[in-house]
Amino acid sequence: MRATYMYGPGDVRVIDVPDPIIQNPTDAVVRVVRSCICGSDLHPYHSMPPTPEGSSMGHEFVGIVEDIGSDVHTVRKGDFVIAPFAWSDGTCDFCREGLQTSCRHGGFWNAGDVHGGQAEAVRVPLADGTLVPVPVAEDSPLIPSLLTLSDVYGTGYHAAVKGRVGPDTSVTVIGDGAVGLLAVLSAKQLGAQHIILMGRHKDRTDLGREFGATDIVAERGEEGIAAVRELTRGDGTHVVIEAVGHMPAYQQAIGVVRPGGVISRVGVPQYSDAPIGFGTLFGPNITLTGGPAPARAYIDTLLPGVLDGSVHPGKVFDREIDLDTVPEGYRAMDDREALKILVRA
Amino acid sequence: MRATYMYGPGDVRVIDVPDPIIQNPTDAVVRVVRSCICGSDLHPYHSMPPTPEGSSMGHEFVGIVEDIGSDVHTVRKGDFVIAPFAWSDGTCDFCREGLQTSCRHGGFWNAGDVHGGQAEAVRVPLADGTLVPVPVAEDSPLIPSLLTLSDVYGTGYHAAVKGRVGPDTSVTVIGDGAVGLLAVLSAKQLGAQHIILMGRHKDRTDLGREFGATDIVAERGEEGIAAVRELTRGDGTHVVIEAVGHMPAYQQAIGVVRPGGVISRVGVPQYSDAPIGFGTLFGPNITLTGGPAPARAYIDTLLPGVLDGSVHPGKVFDREIDLDTVPEGYRAMDDREALKILVRA
After folding, report:
1. Nearest to A296 by CA among A116, A94, A73, A132
2. CA of A137 vs chain B CAs: smallest distance (Å)
3. Separation of alpha carbons B204 and B262, rounded Å
4. For A253-291, how does the pLDDT look when each residue is reduced to its tens digit (9 = 90+)?
5. Using CB atoms, which residue from A259, A278, A291 is nearest to B283?
6. In sequence order, what E strands does chain A have?
7. Which of A37, A110, A200, B56 could bridge A218 with an S-S bond, Cβ 3.0-4.6 Å?
C-alpha cells in the first residue's frame, strides 16, 4: 500500500510499504477513507532531524474496518469508524477519568510499530478502546466534520474545557489554524459571550467569526496585546487559548490574560523553558493548563452535534487532495495557501 | 517608634522611624500586638541588592486600631484586627471575586509609602477593605493562630484550593516550612485522605503529621521523587503543593505529579524561566497554578475554625522574641533553628 513518510525538514514522500495486518488479538485494520494534514505535522516539517528510514505520518483518520483480531468486540468488519489521535485501552484508570492520552497501555500513532493515518490503511492497536463506530456511509457529506473529531475539534474543545470557559468568561484564542478556529467554536458552545480571535488570515478569521468570534485582532506581539487589552478595558480575558505552540504565542498569552485567569495551551510547545516567575504567571495568579487532548473522550460529547448538523467543524478543510499529492499538501499548508487539507486515501 | 529595615543580604536592623499617622481618610493606624518573620522574608535576606536607605520589613501582623481616618467605617479605635498580607479596597471586581491580591486600588506592604509589620505600628491604607476585626483581647491565647491568617494559613489554604484538593485527590506537599505545614492542614480540612509531606526536619514533619500528613519523605531530588512514586504505585499524586520557591522544588514537583494533575505553587518563585514543555507539563496534561494568596478572602472561611479551637495553625510558631531581637530572629530562621518566629512589638 501507499503511505506517507517524512525524512527531514521539507522532505515528505509517499512510498510503498507492506499492507498492515493484525498482529495482536486486540488489533483492527482500518482502510482509510479520509485522513488529513495537521498543523502539528508542520513542526517536524520545519525541524525534524534528518533520518534515512523516515518517520510515518498522520494521526487523524476515518475509515472502514477491514479486519479485526479475535479479541475485538466493539467494532465489526465494515464499520465506519473514527480514530482519535491517541490509541488507548478504554479500561484503565486514566481512560476512565477521560485522560486517554495517558492510557496505561496506549500510545500515539507513528511510534514504535504503530504507523500513521496518511496512508491507505492502518493497524489500530486496542481497537475496542480506540475506535468509535458511526452509522454513516463512506460517502457521507458529514465525513469532513467527523474527521475533525480525530483531533482538531477535540483539541479545540479540550482547550476550552481545561480553560474552564463558560458563560461568564471572556476568551482570547491565539492562532487561526484549524485548532484555533475550533477552539472558538468550542468556546461558543460552552457559552462564552466574548471571544477574541487573534489571527491575520482574513479567510480564516472570517470562518472564526462564523464559528462565534466576536472580535478579530490581526496584530501580533506588543501591538496585538495592546489591541486585546483595549477590547477588555485594559484587563485581558479570563481565558486565553494558545493554539500555536511557538514562544511568541506563549508570550502573547501572558500579555492578554486577566489576573486570576487561565492560559490553556493546545499548540504543541516548540520550547522547553519559558517564563513562569513572579512577573508572568505567579504574581497575578495565572493558571497554565492544557496538553494533548484526550480526543477519544470528547467524541462522545461532540459527535451528536456533528450528526444532527448543529455544528459544521469540517468547514476548516479548504482543500482535498489524493494521497499521492500529500507532499504538495504539506507545502501548501506550510505556505498558508491552505488552512487544512483533506486527504483521499 | 521602632521598625525593622533590611539593607542587604543578612543585614537586618531595627531602627527609629517617625510614628505612622493617618494620611488619607481611608487609613487606619494599627498598633502592632504581634508580627512575625516569614519564610519569604528569607529570600531578600539571601539576595537583596544592597541599598543605603533600606527596605521596611514584615507583612503579617495583628494589633489594635489606634486611629482611623474620617472615611473608615468597619473598624473602630480599640478593635483587635488581623491585617492580611495585601491591602485592598474590598469593593472592586477583583476583590469581589476573591482575588484581593489583584485589587485595582490595593497593594502590598513595604512598597511606596506603605511600611511593614515588623514594627511598633503600621499605617493601613483602605482600612475598611483590608482589616478584619476579631472580638478577642490582645492577650488571648488564640493570637498566634489568628496571626497565621495574615499569611501562612491563608497561603497554605490557597495552595490547596487552587490545586483543587478534595476527598478523592492524593496530595504531596513540598516544603516543611510554615506554609507547607499549613498546606497539609488545609488539604486535610478539604478532605484529602493521602497527604505526603516532603521535608527533612523531624520536629517540623512531626507537626505535619499532627496536621494530617499520612507519609513523610525526607529525601530530596531524584531520591525524593522515587520515594513519592513508591508510595503512589509509581504514579505521583493528583496535587502537588510547592511551598518553597526554589527551582529544585519545582523540579521535584514535576517529578511527583500524576498525569492530569495539578502543581500549585505558593512558594515565591526565585526563578523566572522554568521547564514547561512537552516532557514536563504539556505531554502529561499537568496544570500549573498558584500565586500570592488572597489571604483576606480566606479569613472569612478559616477564622471560625480558629475561634472555636478546632484547628491550631499557631503551632507553627516555635519561638517568640522582642522587636529589637528581630535581626537575631532572621538568623535563627535562616539557620533552621526556628520554624517561625513570633515578634512582640
Report:
1. A132
2. 35
3. 25
4. 999 999 999 999 999 999 999 999 999 999 999 999 999
5. A291
6. 2-8, 11-16, 28-36, 55-56, 61-68, 80-83, 86-87, 107-108, 121-124, 132-133, 171-174, 195-198, 215-217, 237-242, 257-265, 273-275, 287-290, 319-322, 341-344
7. A200
Interchain CB contacts (distance < 8 Å): A and B: 106
In this structure, how many other beta carbons lie within 10 angstroms of the beta carbon of residue B200?
A: 14
Cell of A118: 496518511
- B276 with A276: Cβ contact below 8 A: yes
> Which residues on neighbouring strands pair with residue A174, listed in sequence order?
A198, A242
Q: How far is CA B220 from the centre of its chain?
A: 23
Q: Do the Cβ atoms of B289 and A291 come within 8 Å?
A: no
- Do the Cβ atoms of A288 and B283 come within 8 Å? no
Distance CA A302, CA A292 (A): 17
Enumerate the residues of chain B whose CB falls inside 8 A of the CB of residue A283: 291-292
The alpha carbons of chain A give a radius of gyration, in whole angstroms, of: 20
Provide ipTM, 2 decimals.
0.96
Q: What is the CATH number of domain A2-151+294-344?
A: 3.90.180.10
How far are the Cα atoms of A88, A156, A299, B252 from residue A98, in angstroms, in the given order? 11, 16, 11, 26
Please state the φ and ψ torsions of residue B307, each to the nearest 5 degrees.
-65, -35
Q: Which chain A residues have a beta carbon less than 8 Å from that of B99? A: 259-260, 285
> Does A275 sit within 8 Å of B268, measured CB to CB?
no
CB B56 within 8 A of CB B157: no
Is B292 in contact with A285 (Cβ distance < 8 A)?
yes
Which tens digits make up the pLDDT trace of B43-81?
Answer: 999 999 999 999 999 999 999 999 999 999 999 999 999
Interface contact B285-A265, CB threshold 8 A: no
C-beta separation of A194 from A214 below 8 A: yes
Domain locations along chain A: 2-151+294-344, 156-290
- A156-290 folds as Rossmann fold (3.40.50)
Nearest CA in chain B to A247: B277
The amino acid present at A208, given as its one-letter code, is: G
